Structure formats: C-alpha cells, structure tokens
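Operator note (shift B, R.M.): manual run for SLAP domain-containing protein requested after the automated queue skipped it. Running by hand, logging everything below so the morning shift can see what happened. Input copied straight from the record, untouched. If output looks odd, do not overwrite the archive copy; leave it for review.
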Amino acid sequence: MEERLLFDPAWEKAIAPRDRESIEQLHQSHPVVNGELSWTPINVALNHQGSILAMVLIQNGLEETFTAENLSLIYREHTRGVVAEANFQLKQVQVPSGASMPWTFVFPEQTVRKRPRLSDWQVEVAEKIR
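Run finished. Output pasted below as returned.
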C-alpha cells in the first residue's frame, strides 16, 4: 500500500513550515497499518472557551475512504479515562485508503466531563453515540 500524507487545502495555506515538518516526521515514524484506522496524537490544547483542541494524524489502513461524518469521538487521558466526548459532522475530512491526514478536533466545553490535564492522551471512535 502506497502511503500518502495529505493536508486539507486550508491547512496547506496556513501551516507553519516547522509544524509541517514535525507532522511529516511523525507520518514517517508511524506507518499506516493495514486494516486499521489510527488516530496518532500530535498536539492538544485548551482554548479560552474551555474547549479541548486535539490534533491527531488520521491514518487510514482500511480499504475504503474514511469520512468524519456522523462520527462520535472520545478524548481520553490514560490515568483519568474519558474526559470528553463529542459528535462531529465533518464531511470535508476525507482520508483515502492508505493515506494520512492531520486534523484538529474541537471538543466543545459542554462536552468536557472533567478538566483535562492535556497529557498522555488519545482520541478514539466511541463504541456508540451516547
């Protein structure tokens, strides 16, 4: 499977060269795994509104294109469990089979269950929409 690193057109225009290089290095060191959809953490922050901004590298090892539409995601911290859960309708986020793409998912303040520590975290697809 040929691996490709894609950037959303808006990211192409706005991403700093240093950040792009960092994402390219992460992509090279974490290959796409056949049969898996992976969410490799890149960066996390808390904005002034109390929303969690979780940037991940979406890596699509599935046979079909992944679209972030009707998607329920969990932001989890290793020692604290589920910190936030939100539903996303992002049909513009499309990752073809064998490709990777960075994206920042914003978990609005009202979806945050407990104050995040912003360390040892991951994003994963929820088992079901709650």
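Quick read of the result: The radius of gyration is 14 Å. The chain has one domain: 4-125.
Leaving this for review. - R.M.
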